[in-house]
Amino acid sequence: MPPFPTATTASATSHLALLLVLSSSSIFFLYKSLRLRRERSSAPARAPTATPTLLYASATGTSKALASRLSARLTAEAGVPVRATDAAAFEPDDLPSVPLLLLVLPTHDAGAPPPAAAFLARWLEESAADFRAGALLLSGLRFAIFGVGSRAYGETFNAAAKSFSRWLRALGAVEVVPLGEGDVDGGDIEVVFEEWSGRVLRVVKGEEVSDAVNGESDGLDVLEGEESDDDDDEDVVDGEVDMEDLAGKAPGRKQNGKVENGLRNGEENGARDMVTPIIRTSLEKQGYKIIGSHSGVKICRWTKSQLRGRGGCYKHSFYGIESHRCMEATPSLACANKCVFCWRHHTNPVGKSWKWKMDDPLEIVNAAIDQHTKMVKQMKGVPGVKPEKLEEGLSPRHCALSLVGEPIMYPEINTLVDELHRRHISTFLVTNAQFPEKIKTLKPITQLYVSVDAATKESLKAVDRPLFSDFWERFLDSLKSLHEKDQRTVYRLTLVKGWNAEEIDAYAKLLNLGQPDFIEIKGVTYCGSSATSKLTMENVPWHSDVKEFSEVLASKSGDVYEVACEHAHSCCVLLAKVDKFKINGKWHTWIDYDRFHELVTSGKPFKSQDYMAMTPSWAVYGAEEGGFDPDQSRFKKERRHGAAALKR
């Protein structure tokens, strides 16, 4: 008679039966889980200073900067050398052997993880959904995640970080610090990150031990039974650790459970600075001069070009501005879109309404002119700069309110425009077609642009990536509001091959909504590789492509518009209304700026035809100059490519 089966033989029998129905890959997962459980049960207790693995996946540089700051803090205060590593370089199969995982992670398009973390995300998601992996695969892993996002995106706010937390917990990992949720546009990311990293520091030092977090925490509340951390914060306040680094200077620390002065960094009467230290650092690296808490100015390459007598921008060819006397500025660095072709690589804030501190418009204008003239003065001594042009450049006569962001969001935009006009500075304002009511209440300006980045709802969502759920209705209403303006109005089209350049019939249908005076059609400018943009040089049209598109669009307008001007260097073409601006066969797209200021000063109603001027022959479409002013000197850089470059 066979012996009575023991618990051990019964267990072995059941395991054998299970193995008979599992595939080879299933056997691997089961073996791996059982082996890890056995190894961990016999392993000695982990020292509190076990070296963590710190990963980041950065889209605009913010997450990398925060991870670097955390690395420095853990190394200095915990004595544990921690290196911040790009998630793209991390092998997910190594996760089971990681004692503590720290992850700083932004959210990309539609709540997805950024490209650098895409492979890791796919590995975790697939493993969490695979019954063969089960809840034992990462049962020895502890982790903490800090999400970098914007509440302006609603339900997708820090969605990627939340997904990572959910997948890791599904695989048995223990979340030792609640998910940190930083809001780059809300202005609180510095405070939230400091609190979160302080908790991480205590975990690494073995001073704080917590049970698994259930994933439903909505902030960084103190865990049950946790002692006061006043002493810890006091040490930091005393300056033992310098936290001013890549991500900007840390804000005031908490003391006795309160933020110093009762306000967070940059807050005033409950309103925060639009430009956080991280955003300021990023924009200043790109050459911006930040004005106050929400404005900026930057010298344009065409300003430098015309100071040297080497040609002006397309606005010089189309409208007669003096590029060396043009100031590029904005009273609002924030925007309601995240366009794929944004040349600022999405380093500016986003928002759907004004929620920040507001600076005085007079102070903004004064500071903008001051900063602009300082940058012009720095051109003194640069080879080729003409003294007379430099002298003129110190007195700006044009302001392009199109630097970055959405200028029309600024609540005092009308007062700011009035102040510019009072100084005889013309105004060219660009709006991104998401604030129709602001367009209606805008005072007369020299020229008002609306960006028409796509012609269908689907493509507009893909190209502009707007914050508003009713973005299409706002877009159409903005075009209709443009029609109500008496001064010069413009549709601004940026052609992106493969995204919107094929929608010419849909564009033609939009012409009747706004009935603009002009239509600018420009090829997208490639600004280099970026994790926030999928564009490549293949998306950039040739000037011949832009010309062809412009000619077809003009023909589809029913002779309402004709191609009037071009600027080949900028890959840009201008369509103009025939009945308004073509007089006796001659185009009048230029502006009589002195006359415009007279009309504004009079306070009486006036129309776009009241301050137009004749377009010079060299700027007219088809001229051999291609829109290049013959009074300027053409300068072409010698470019070496391929074999020639290698021989150099």
From TrEMBL:
Its cofactor is [4Fe-4S] cluster. Residues 52-201 form the Flavodoxin-like domain. Residues 213-235, 247-269, 625-648 are annotated as: Disordered. GO terms for molecular function: 4 iron, 4 sulfur cluster binding; FMN binding; metal ion binding; tRNA-4-demethylwyosine synthase activity. Residues 218-235 have a biased composition (Acidic residues). Gene3D superfamilies: 3.40.50.360, Aldolase class I (3.20.20.70). It is an enzyme of class 4 (lyase). The keyword Repeat does not apply. Pathway: tRNA modification; wybutosine-tRNA(Phe) biosynthesis. Residues 636-648 have a biased composition (Basic residues). Belongs to the TYW1 family. NCBIfam families: rSAM_TYW1. This is tRNA 4-demethylwyosine synthase (AdoMet-dependent).
